[in-house]
Design goal:
By secondary structure, this protein is an alpha+beta fold. The protein is built from two helices and five strands; from the N terminus they run βαββαββ. The protein is elongated, with a radius of gyration of 18 Å.
């Protein structure tokens, strides 16, 4: 017996962003628990949908940033223009930028970077550098 089913294929404009977030609060070396960030993101997603009807799926992966004397654990937050809930490029960037600003405030981040499909943006709340960085 053959089972037939219909499979719908959807596509949208390829819009993406990768946000890199340190897992230290400021330059204190106090680590932020990933589960704390996950819980915060879930509350943020719920609020975003309730207030603006925007659905934002976030892929999390761990990495380390190595720069001169600094080695710091980070999270990479991957965002895409998900075909089930498509957005324009302008709305996508506005939404991602707002997420970064709120993450910075909630988790005491001095700077965060967003790699968009067409530009790389740095958000900075302080010009200070991590004291472990020894630029020569």
């Amino acid at each position: 017996m053959t089972v037939c089913f219909f499979m719908k294929r959807s596509s949208v404009q390829p819009i993406s962003a990768t946000i890199t977030m340190g897992l230290e609060s400021g330059y204190t070396r106090k680590l932020i628990d990933k589960q704390e960030i996950v819980a915060w993101l879930q509350r943020y997603q719920n609020r975003l949908f309730k207030e603006k009807r925007i659905s934002l799926s976030i892929r999390l992966s761990s990495c380390d940033i190595v720069f001169d004397g600094q080695i710091e654990p980070h999270l990479r937050l991957g965002l895409i223009n998900y075909p089930k809930f498509p957005m324009s490029g302008e709305l996508f960037k506005t939404t991602a930028d707002a997420l970064v600003r709120e993450l910075m405030q909630a988790f005491n981040q001095n700077r965060m970077v967003v790699e968009y499909w067409d530009e790389t943006v740095m958000f900075e709340s302080s010009p200070d550098l991590d004291p472990r960085i020894k630029l020569k």
